[in-house]
Design goal:
Blueprint: H1 3-33, H2 39-55, H3 58-76, H4 85-90, H5 97-107
C-alpha cells in the first residue's frame, strides 16, 4: 500500500474513532439523566461500531462493544444528578471511554497502548 493510501486510511479511521467517542460521550451523558433509552438514540452508535468492524482490530472492537454495553447499563440504572459527576471523574471504571480512547493511538500507528 502506498504512503498516500496508508495515510488516508489512517485518517479515515481516526475520524471514525472521533465520531464514536463523540456519540458515546453524548449518549453516556444522556443515560445518566434518563432511565429510559430509546432504541433510535443508539442506532448511530451501533452503525459507527459496525463500520469499525470493517477496518479495526479485534481489540478496538472489543473496547467499543464495552462502551456500548456500559451505556445501555447506565440507561437501565437509576438516574444520576450533577452532584454525582465527581464519582465518574474519580473512578476509571465509570469512564467507559477511557480504555477505548487509550487503544486508538496504537491502532492508528501512534503510541502503544499500555
Amino acid at each position: 500500500m502506498s504512503f498516500w493510501l496508508t495515510t488516508t486510511y489512517s485518517h479515515k479511521r481516526e475520524e471514525l474513532y472521533t465520531l464514536v467517542i463523540e456519540e458515546a460521550a453524548r449518549l453516556y451523558a444522556d443515560a445518566y439523566e434518563h432511565s429510559k433509552a430509546e432504541t433510535s438514540k443508539l442506532v448511530n452508535l451501533y452503525a459507527l461500531v459496525s463500520k469499525m468492524r470493517v477496518v479495526s482490530s479485534p481489540r478496538i472492537i472489543e473496547n467499543a462493544d464495552k462502551v456500548v454495553r456500559v451505556i445501555i447499563e447506565t440507561y437501565l440504572a437509576p438516574n444520576k444528578t450533577f452532584r454525582d459527576i465527581p464519582e465518574i471523574l474519580d473512578n476509571d471504571a465509570m469512564n467507559p471511554l477511557r480504555e477505548f480512547s487509550d487503544t486508538c493511538p496504537a491502532e492508528l500507528g501512534g503510541r502503544r497502548a499500555s
